[in-house]
């Protein structure tokens, strides 16, 4: 019991940070470019990133095959070993999610993030059952539900954690700071590590309500920018955090436009403008048109990379 408690404390501490969601770079033939993937991970780690989520949405989780998701996990764990905590994204049907979580454990990852169930009919009881089955399959790993459902009650998360003490954090991605504040308090503000799951644009408001970490796709491009924001937030310097917010505002607006259609596209376009990877994304995402690429390049070129 003592060992598990110690492990979970380390995992909880790791979550209270910039949680990087790496892109998945593709080669010209459409396969995962393993060398570029490793290079991008090393660049992020060298830039100060200390927790990474392979198979997150910025990594095009839903566009990857099962074999590709396993490969991404393997590459990430190998590069991050000894340098960063790995929080592996798992999901899809329950047997697939459980198998992915066990694969993450086998490789030595410390935690899994459970993607919001993609199903037209999600009951609150069923939500608990889904996450409980995954958490019970890997009791040694920290488990972080990814919550995008605005009607889920905080009491349900508390119920899940009562059954599964390895549910230690939450990636909360409902775009409503007041709802987040209420949900966190209903579930137990001190019981979980609260990660603002909508990245830098929402980080200041969510930190003011109790978050201590935030996810980031921007960190792929400019780690220093994201780290500057969290340092400001940790010190209570909200004016300083908002200066960073102003710096990244347009970039994040481009990512969020049209229902976040270009969320990954804009990040890869910025990386391509810096010569770091190809701009290729998979359907249902699509590359930026030529007419919009210059603006992204100008934004990325203006940051302290």
TrEMBL record:
InterPro entries: Aldolase_TIM, DapA-like. The active site is at 146 (proton donor/acceptor), 171 (schiff-base intermediate with substrate). The keyword Lyase applies. Keywords: Lyase. CDD domains: DHDPS-like (cd00408). Transmembrane segments: none annotated. GO terms for molecular function: 4-hydroxy-tetrahydrodipicolinate synthase activity. Gene3D superfamilies: Aldolase class I. Pyruvate binds at residue 58. It comes from the Bacteria. PANTHER family: 5-DEHYDRO-4-DEOXYGLUCARATE DEHYDRATASE 2-RELATED (PTHR12128:SF19), DIHYDRODIPICOLINATE SYNTHASE (PTHR12128). Belongs to the DapA family. This is Dihydrodipicolinate synthase family protein. It comes from Streptomyces dioscori.
């Amino acid at each position: 019991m003592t060992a598990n408690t110690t492990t979970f404390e380390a995992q909880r501490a790791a979550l209270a940070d910039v949680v990087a969601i790496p892109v998945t770079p593709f080669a010209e033939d459409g396969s995962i470019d393993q060398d570029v993937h490793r290079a991008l991970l090393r660049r992020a780690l060298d830039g100060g990133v200390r927790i990474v989520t392979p198979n997150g949405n910025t990594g095009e989780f839903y566009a990857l095959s099962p074999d590709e998701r396993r490969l991404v996990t393997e590459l990430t764990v190998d590069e991050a070993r000894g340098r960063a905590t790995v929080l592996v994204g798992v999901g899809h049907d329950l047997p697939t999610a459980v198998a992915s979580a066990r694969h993450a454990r086998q490789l030595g990852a410390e935690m899994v993030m459970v993607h919001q169930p993609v199903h037209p009919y999600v009951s609150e009881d069923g939500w608990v059952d889904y996450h409980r089955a995954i958490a019970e399959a890997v009791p040694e790993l920290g488990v972080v539900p990814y919550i995008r459902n605005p009607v889920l009650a905080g009491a349900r998360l508390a119920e899940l954690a009562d059954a599964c003490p390895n549910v230690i954090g939450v990636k909360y991605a409902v775009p409503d700071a007041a709802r987040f504040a209420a949900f966190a308090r209903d579930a137990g503000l001190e019981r979980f590590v609260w990660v603002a799951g909508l990245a830098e644009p929402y980080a200041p408001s969510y930190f003011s309500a109790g978050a201590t970490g935030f996810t980031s796709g921007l960190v792929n491009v400019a780690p220093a920018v994201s780290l500057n924001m969290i340092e400001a937030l940790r010190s209570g310097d909200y004016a300083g955090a908002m200066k960073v917010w102003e710096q990244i505002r347009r970039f994040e607006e481009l990512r969020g436009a049209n229902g976040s259609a270009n969320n990954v596209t804009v990040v890869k376009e910025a990386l391509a403008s810096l010569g770091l990877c190809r701009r290729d994304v998979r359907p249902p995402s699509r590359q930026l048109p030529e007419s919009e690429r210059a603006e992204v390049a100008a934004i990325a070129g203006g940051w302290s990379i």
